[in-house]
Amino acid sequence: MTPAARVQTSIELLDSIIEAARNKGAPADRILAEWFRNNRFAGSKDRRAIRELVFAAIRACGPMPVSGRSAMLRLGEVDENIPALFDGSNYGPAAVRDGESAAPGGAAPEWLKQRLAASDIAGPETDALLERAPLDLRVNTLKADRATLELPAPASTTAAPNGLRVEPGTPVEQWPAFRDGAIEVQDTGSQLACMAVAAQPGETVIDLCAGGGGKTLALAAAMDNLGRLIASDTDRNRLSRLAPRAERAGATNIQTILLNPAQELDALADFTGQADAVLIDAPCSGTGTWRRNPEARWRLDEKELARLTNIQSYLLDLAVKLVKPGGRIVYVTCSLLDEEGAGQFDAFLGRHSGLRPKELTLPLGRPRGKGIRLSPFHDGTDGFFIACAE
Ligand SMILES: C[S@@+](CC[C@H](N)C(=O)[O-])C[C@H]1O[C@@H](n2cnc3c(N)ncnc32)[C@H](O)[C@@H]1O
To answer: What are the TM regions of this chain, as residue ranges (predicted)?
Structure first.
């Protein structure tokens, strides 16, 4: 493909991504993957270039752009190679018309920038939210040891006890160590969130919002497969991804439980007052993961944020019923907004006078309210709020 044709293809993909963001459709990554699958004429260099153009254009636009073309014109304001490619050539974008304008830039829609600033995320902290994410791995201690594991490419150790970092784009999923379950792809921040649970062999641990089980697998390894580990979620699809991953990881103490929204306790009745620890990796705005999902900024509005904060407080209250006296409730969100983090946790403690915040000792992060905040700027991880009550 010519460079101009790559730009035009990226514009068309951006149109689909904008449409999907408007209608809560597929994420950008999936839209790209599907296009690559259906358009085999695009070689690996084309695919890489298109992916980079699309994500650079998404990052360059704060609010949702009106069209893929306006998003690409905005990228042209910060990337000097782009404007000349609006050349009207075959398969390339039409020349820029008089008065045609680029989409607005910025880090996020204005309302969201204000919410972030109110949570002390501004300036370089905000810029870092849109940088390229590193590629972090967790060595699965059920199968391997970080000190002796040999990998096909250089990897540096991270602050997480079993963490490694490799060059972004490294095809780790093709490595024997990945296929054999010796490594998992997991951001350092997620690994530290699991560390905060301090799950011990023999305990009963509930991963209440287990999703596809990224954190469940780390908990199984921390428990050395000993004890009961419940992985529950209301999303059948996500939860169904856990079994093959657990098999590969050699994790054998996991029981998955599908929950009905608003009736979660029915399926968890056997565990009422039984858990040594409950992890709530709550659904959230994902403001801490924009490095990976930059178009998430366009999907969020104040109504959606209010819906998420309601679920978070509901799940926190639910966890109180599951934990045994003296047990731990670990609350995690990959958000940097206080209403989903420090503020939410304060309100929770205010509703439950029998619970106390437990101080966490993690190798990264800074105190925020009664918990710890990790941020891309300070810690080089995804953004997280992590807190524990007991
Ligand atoms: C941040 S994601 C979890 C990610 C997962 N723990 C991991 O490490 O891969 C939040 C999850 O909460 C789930 N969820 C939403 N409402 C829920 C509810 N009422 N009860 C349990 N899980 C819920 C969502 O389906 C989603 O999978």
So the answer is: none
281 assigned ligand-binding residue: yes
Radius of gyration of the chain (CA): 22
Q: Which tens digit of pLDDT belongs to each residue from 310-369?
A: 999 999 999 999 999 999 999 999 999 999 999 999 999 999 999 999 999 999 999 999
**Ligand 1 pocket residue status of 238, Cβ below 6 Å:** yes
- 210 Cβ closer than 6 Å to some ligand 1 atom: yes
- Look at the block and give the residue holding tokens 């997480």: 160
Per residue in 138-189, pLDDT (tens digit) is: 999 999 999 999 999 999 999 999 999 999 989 999 999 999 999 999 999 9
pTM: 0.95
> What is the distance between the alpha carbons of residues 70 and 65, in angstroms, rounded to a whole number?
7
Please give the distance, rounded to the nearest whole angstrom, from the Cα atom of residue 210 to the centre of ligand 1.
6
Q: What is the DSSP letter of 85?
A: G
Residue 284 annotated in active site:
no
Dihedral pair phi/psi, residue 348, rounded to 5°? -60, -50
Of 194, 209, 284, 334, catalytic: 334
Chain-centroid distance of CA 383 in Å reads 9
CA of 209 from ligand 1 middle (Å) equals 4
pLDDT of residue 193: 98
Atom of ligand 1 nearest to the CA of 208: 21
pLDDT band with cut points at 50, 70 and 90 for residue 300: very high
Distances (CA, A) of 220 to 110, 115, 226, 262: 42, 36, 8, 27
ipTM score assigned to the predicted complex: 0.99
Whole-angstrom Cα distance, residue 69 to residue 14?
Answer: 8
- The Å distance, Cα 106 to ligand 1 centre, comes to 30
> Predicted confidence band at 127 (pLDDT cuts at 50, 70, 90)?
very high
Beta carbons of 372 and 288 less than 8 angstroms apart: no
CB-ligand 1 contact for 248 (6 Å cutoff): no
Give CA–CA dist 389/197, Å, rounded. 11
* Ligand 1 neighbour 109 (Cβ under 6 A): no
What average pLDDT score do residues 118-144 get?
A: 96
